[in-house]
Amino acid sequence: MNDVIDVPPAPDAAKLESLKQLTMIIYILQAASFVVGITAIVAVVVNYVKRDETRGTIYESHFNWQIRTFWWGLLWSIVGFATVVVLVGFVILALDAVWIIYRIVKGFLSWNDGKPMAV
Predict the structure, then answer these.
(1) Residues near 100 by Cβ (< 8 Å), separated by ≥ 6?
(2) What is each CA distance from 102 to 37, 61, 77, 95, 98, in whole angstroms?
(3) pTM, rounded to two decimals
(4) What angle do CA 67, 74, 38 make, to 5 degrees?
(5) Rounded CA gap, 58 and 9, in Å?
């Protein structure tokens, strides 16, 4: 019996450069969402569409980081808006914004250093 493990081929240099640029663009879209909210949705859609292409590269961890940043940020935004009436929502929204900014900056700095994200 011959067991074959499906290992994706190593991406070439041009493909890695393309993924590197795309990863940076997604971080920029996430940051821009503080001014134009729709860019975060565009960013996460691109993350999901291009996710398979990042398998086996350092950019896979960045995509996972970006996707988690979006979903957890959205969850805490919903909780924050739902509790604004009792004033605690303002604190939740402020902390959520700080957390999202932290994640974008940390991810961008790791991207700039050519390091994967610890996820």
Answers:
(1) 30, 69, 73
(2) 17, 17, 16, 10, 6
(3) 0.86
(4) 80
(5) 14
Query: For residues 94 and 82, is the Cβ–Cβ distance under 8 A?
Result: no
What are 70's two structure tokens?
């979006």
Calpha distance 30→100 (Å, rounded)? 9
- 90: number of Cβ within 10 Å: 12
The alpha carbon of residue 62 and the mean position of all alpha carbons in its chain are separated, in whole angstroms, by 6
Contacting residues for 93 by C-beta, under 8 A, at least 6 apart: 76, 77, 80, 81, 84
Tens-place pLDDT, residues 68-117: 999 999 999 999 999 999 999 999 999 999 999 999 999 999 999 999 99
